[in-house]
Amino acid sequence: HVQLVESGGASVQAGQSLTLSCAASVYTWRHYCMGWFRQAPGKEREFVARISVVGTTDTADSVKGRFTISRGNADNTLYLQMNSLKPDDSAMYYCAAARTFTDITRGRFAGLGMGTQVTVS
């Protein structure tokens, strides 16, 4: 059973930075690709970024150059560094795990966290 716990969401002003974290078990960390998604009220869930077991990354065009996904292998934690935040970035951010890199963007999740709220004003 894949369990993911996000943290780090906050209310910030436009232009500021924020780092989200997602804690996972050791087994999940070693065997699953990870990703970040977000969903704003009234909108569809949106892919943000993904990272493979070996560290290959992919980032959505809407956040490219501003958001960075990374894996903290020492503590089994997924990070999303968000810079130059905009009001349009306001959403609930979710951490996901999947067996393959492709499964992340296809929504074939082995696990999905409860989310952490980011509000940019």
Would you mind describing this structure in some detail?
- The chain has helices at 26-31, 101-106, and strands at residues 4-7, 11-12, 18-24, 33-39, 46-51, 57-59, 67-72, 77-82, 91-98, 111-112, 116-120.
- The strands form two sheets. Strands 2, 4, 5, 6, 9, 10 and 11 form a seven-stranded mixed sheet that branches.
- By secondary structure, the chain is mostly beta strands.
- The longest helix is centred in the first third of the chain and has 6 residues, at 26-31.
- The protein is built from two helices and eleven strands; from the N terminus they run βββαββββββαββ.
- It is globular.
The gist of it:
The chain is built from two helices and eleven strands. It is mainly beta and 121 residues long. The protein starts with a strand and ends with a strand.
Short key terms for the protein model shown above:
single chain, globular, 121 residues, seven-stranded mixed sheet
What's the arrangement of secondary structure elements?
Layout: E1 4-7, E2 11-12, E3 18-24, H1 26-31, E4 33-39, E5 46-51, E6 57-59, E7 67-72, E8 77-82, E9 91-98, H2 101-106, E10 111-112, E11 116-120
Parallel strand pairs: 2-11
Antiparallel strand pairs: 1-3, 3-8, 4-5, 4-9, 5-6, 7-8, 9-10, 9-11
Q: Given the structure, what is the number of helices?
A: 2
Overall mean pLDDT: 94
List the secondary-structure elements in sequence, H or E.
EEEHEEEEEEHEE
Spans where pLDDT lies below 50 across 5 or more residues: none
Radius of gyration: 13 Å
* Strand count: 11
Biggest sheet, open or closed, and with what strands and sense? 7 strands, mixed
Shape assignment:
globular
Please estimate the helix content.
under 10%
> What separation lies between the terminal Cα atoms?
37 Å
Percent of residues in beta strands: over 45%
User: What is the structural class?
Assistant: mainly beta
